[in-house]
């Protein structure tokens, strides 16, 4: 035996292997800690810290304390952190790289918490999206607050011009009317026409010669009357045009001050496009923070998808490759049950998970599910969040999540603090519901956040800040429509809100109120000018109208007198009576 | 390294069994040609330490074959892949896949399996060849070698002094 066995060598081997086993067992925690930190940092894209890892051998379990995942986009914050994680798993499966966790408990989960020192970001990290920068300053929005003086300068007050135009038009029309009036026949002349026509029609021709003479006299008289009637008609036409023009001008003069004031008010109306982004600036960071809680399930799922992608690396012939003979179709990674305890300010929530894996085909297509339901508390009336997801070779990644939150009491919190402007939400009641679907790793969904009993406060020295501060206090309720889209690991958010419209309306009212005194002065001045102008123009218009009426009566008389035809003259009483009756009917004589 | 070579030469020249040296070369070949951090190499190391084989020969063979392995890894990859993808062997591989111990041996890694199988196949050839070379060296090459002029020069070098120190044979032949 001694010729074959080298005892010192055998003993040395046993000692070395034994020592290695003792070292591994003793330092398993730190070794696993280093390995986990390295692997998770690669998956996360930024530094991952674990305070300590403890291995329990029977039953085999791993406990981790104070896990911190640096947010690669904001290294000063943790994307997610947990106070403690405990996993019970199958040892031999873990040895061959198959992670099968029976029970996972993660407690003290929080998101967006500031780190003691900024975490390191991997040089090869690439952001999956370009999220909207909520943190731009309000000043960047270039909110332009119009001043009353500026508005008056560019508002082009038109009333004086309208008055001047009316006066000019009046002079022109008056000249035309006066010119036409000069050709009018005298009233006495028209009376003479009537008397002469009556005399002709009253006459009793006894002979045909007398009748012919009368007819000739009537024709001669009517020729004169037609000349005068044409002059009267011309006067009436000119007068009618003058009345129309002057009435229109006077109407324009009277309405001009109102139109000018309305124009000034419209220029004071606050319809700056920049206000359409104000709700995003004020509430964007908060909504982003809230959405992190709403979408936290996908923060857990994201690294798994990354892991499943990593398996597609093409092997090198110099390094070899592992060939998969997994015909038993057991998932490489499976968490049968997990309970995650999420820490919120002054309270916490518990979320239950089941069948977490990225190989759902290997567990009969059963989807991974997560659900959070909290009964009524002092913080909310109703809180429910649930969802499921599954990955398969045929269908790819599919999942959805829905949430419904009622009566969340929001306590005082800072919304915005930059450039000496501080905006605070003093309190509000939040309701929200929505749904997000996932397809091919891309999130797409929407939700509504309704804020009721809102109390807002804003403080700042700039003029726009002071005006905004005056109006935000009047905001009582508003809705924010939330759109979620983009990669699961870094979804992008956009907000549309009627808060912008409300602020716009209130700021306009505020500016208008500020301008009311000056607008009233302007209105008084304009109305005085109009009054002065109309005092002058109204009697003149009335005179033209009176002249027109007289002209129209002349025209009617002449028309009636010309209606008597010479051929109507007859011999004897029969003719006289008929003519008399006709004349009586027409001129009432 | 000089000391290691000196020890090897001592073993070649001394009464060490040629088979002890030959098996040292075989185990060194296993250690060198297969991926170092594999479970089977712990067993190889166990055999090398606990059996009376020549350790210097083992270490030098390991170093030599490690260098060689870098050149012929694609060959091992091809052998391993051919075996692992052979339909006839699939039931064996599938049954081993659920065995944690087999997985720890990384049997489903192309280069690990390919190099190990290559070593197993070459051992029946390499062991007798190594034995023959050692015997031939001792009977013929050594005498011829001693007569060479440059050997005479080497006898005056530091290496030779070290060799003598290791062998403990003052005035011994090379």
Give a summary of the structure in a few sentences.
Chain B: Keywords: Membrane, Transmembrane, Transmembrane helix. The complex is a heterodimer of chains A (about 600) and B (about 170). Chain A is about 45% helix and about 25% strand.
Overall description:
Chain A is α+β, with helices and mostly antiparallel strands and 589 residues long. Among the domains of chain A are: 1-107, no CATH class; 155-270 and 527-587. Chain A is 46% helix and 27% strand. Chain A is built from twelve helices and 15 strands. Chain A has a 15-stranded mixed β-sheet that branches. In chain A, a hairpin with a 3-residue loop joins strand 9 and strand 10. In chain A, helix 6 runs antiparallel to helix 7 and helix 6 crosses helix 11 (499-562). The N and C termini of chain A lie far apart (168 Å). The mean pLDDT of chain A is 82. By secondary structure, chain B is mostly helical. Chain B has one domain. In chain B, 79% of the residues lie in helices and 0% in strands. Chain B has helices at residues 2-13, 18-33, 39-50, 55-84, 90-97, 100-104, 110-147, 149-154, 158-167. In chain B, helix 2 (18-33) runs antiparallel to helix 3. Mean pLDDT of chain B is 84; it is low at 169-174. Chain A binds chain B through residues 3-7, 9-10, 12-13, 17, 92-93, 95-97, 315, 317-328, and chain B through 35, 42, 45-46, 48-52, 55, 73-74, 76-78, 80-81, 84-85, 90, 93-94, 96-98, 100, 103-104, 106, 108-112, 114. Chain B: It comes from Aliidiomarina haloalkalitolerans. Chain B: This is DUF2062 domain-containing protein. Chain B: InterPro entries: CHP03546, DUF2062. Chain B: Keywords: Membrane, Transmembrane, Transmembrane helix. Chain B: The chain crosses the membrane at residues 20-48, 55-72, 111-134. Chain A: Keywords: Membrane, Transmembrane, Transmembrane helix.
